[in-house]
Write a structure and sequence with these properties.
The protein is mainly beta. It has one domain: 1,4-Beta-D-Glucan Cellobiohydrolase I, Chain A (Distorted Sandwich). The chain has a 16-stranded mixed beta sheet that branches. Strands 1-12-11 form a three-stranded antiparallel beta sheet. The chain has a three-stranded mixed beta sheet with strand order 2-8-5. The longest helix is centred in the last third of the chain and has 11 residues. It is globular and about 60 Å long. The protein starts with 10 loop residues before the first strand and ends in a 5-residue tail after the last strand.
Length: 456
Amino acid sequence: MFPSVALLTLSCLAVAYGQQVGTLTAESHPKITVQKCSASKSCSTEQHSVVLDSNWRWLHSTSGSNNCYTGNTWDTSLCPDPTTCAKNCALDGADYSGTYGITTSGNALTLKFVTHGPYSTNIGSRVYLMDTSDSKYQIFNLKNQEFTFDVDMSQLPCGLNGALYFVEMDADGGTSRFSGNKAGAKYGTGYCDTQCPHDIKFINGEANILGWTPSPNDTNAGSGQYGTCCNEMDIWEANSQGAAVTPHVCSVQGQTRCSGNDCGDGDNRYGGICDKDGCDFNSWRMGDQTFLGTGKTVDTSKKFTVVTQFLTSNNSTSGTLSEIRRLYVQNGKVIANSKTNISGMSNYDSITDAFCNAQKTAFGDNNSFERLGGLNVMGQSFDKGMVLVMSIWDDHAARMLWLDSDYPLDKDASQPGVSRGPCPTSSGNPPDVESQSPGATVIYSNIKYGPIGSTY
């Protein structure tokens, strides 16, 4: 994900956060089926579920129902310091449909943008795929494999992001590494990504209250001293007007708490331990404005299939990741990815280190992706194993312009790489998106994974 503080927008108007386990609401994960395929294109159905990220959950005192966090402020009596807060505060179960607008049916997951619940109004959500035991996150190792899903984002306008991606979280949510974390994967703990987000309320089993600063433009968000970093593979960041596939890498393995310069904040964006920009393939940004969108080659007004292949140097799971290839299927037709049409670049149609280097040169961008190891490091992350994340969110930091409009705004849109989609630069203001498109939804369905060529 591109903006340095974009994840501040993933919030709920009446939630709080923590690491102990509450008992006031039973936690029941919505069920979803996933298919594991073989080289013969034979697929078996697995029973899985999804879990809501802990950052959305009600957090209250372990001895009652007093909020530990309200709006964007901590209760200092319950949370005088990070470790005491973790002991005093408990995460509770979630009403997935009524409070958060999260529903499943068979192989489909629906995420609604704005949900008016009985006690609160919820904005956006983030869920993780659980393994078949329902107690840990499903771990994916995708080298020399492909990952496929159907998506309906016809109801996602400018300024929204229906994101499906992988991050290098701990399978248990961090309980084995951090004694202060008693809730674990069952309650959606342990998030990290390459933006090293500071809005996560608990990191490494401790409350992120040191230096906590409420957000100036989001009444439900803030940021603490620490960020939480890890490798990230953005399979799909998209709305009806644009889409990008983007690997991001870090110099560390696994979920890592950062502070100071290591987080890469502000003017030190390219001095941290993670590559925040990534190496994106966005068809519009790469020079083809006819490929993806309403009524275009990939018609976003209708459901379609997204296939992502992770090819290795020796065509085996032990090889070095060398290429990320994208295909689409719609109306029974396989659609090859668009090709780049940028001066100074060859006609690339997939992500390779050569593509990334050429893109960074053509656009005049900082090549932190190459500096931190490129596709080889992304492949090492898959060797370790990554967790599937699915979300819907708006962007208080950059209004999603980096995905679907011109960005950054201080550059001429005619310069290569600045125009990223057809949305006006005035679009994406969260209050406008939330009031004008509360019924926006994204539907992910028919998830499959297996050897190259097995899932479509």
